[in-house]
Design goal:
Radius of gyration: 60 Å
Number of helices: 2
Order of helices and strands: HH
Distance between the termini: 179 Å
Helix content: over 70%
Shape: rod-shaped
Structural class: mainly alpha
Length: about 150
């Protein structure tokens, strides 16, 4: 039994020391907990607001980057279109020049052919007259040609 009393005395002494240690820890009241929770909620709200602002700025910056990329692409497209139009214009001008030259050549050739036709017609008329004269001359002489 004495051993049990000694054991119980030791347990009591351990519990008393634990109580003394707990009493040395500052007492935390419900109000302290609520205030700490409120401060933490304020900190978190502040952090969330700050993060929302950062995300908002990042979104605005990304939108600006996208719009700048779109403007650059539009400029590239416009420049390419202007170049293509210029190439087409040059090609059309070359084709027009070629067609004008071809038309001029055709008109000259038509005039040359008409002149040639007139010369040939004059030659035909002259030959017919010569043949007629020759036939008349030979007809008076009595020569017949087959």
């Amino acid at each position: 039994m004495a051993a049990i009393f000694i054991q119980k005395d030791q347990e009591i002494a351990t519990l008393q020391r634990a109580i003394e240690q707990l009493q040395q820890i500052p007492h935390i009241s419900q109000q302290d907990v609520e205030q700490a929770v409120a401060r933490r909620e304020d900190e978190l709200r502040s952090l969330v607001t700050k993060r929302e602002e950062e995300v908002g700025k990042a979104i605005v910056q990304r939108e600006e980057e996208i719009m700048e990329a779109v403007r650059r692409r539009e400029t590239e497209f416009s420049e390419a279109w202007v170049k293509r139009e210029e190439d087409i214009r040059k090609e059309v001008e070359q084709n027009c020049k070629f067609m004008d030259e071809k038309m001029e050549w055709l008109m000259k050739r038509e005039v040359e052919l008409k002149d040639e036709e007139e010369k040939l017609e004059d030659m035909r008329v002259e030959l017919e007259e010569r043949i007629k004269k020759w036939e008349q001359k030979n007809a008076t002489k009595g020569i017949i040609y087959f």
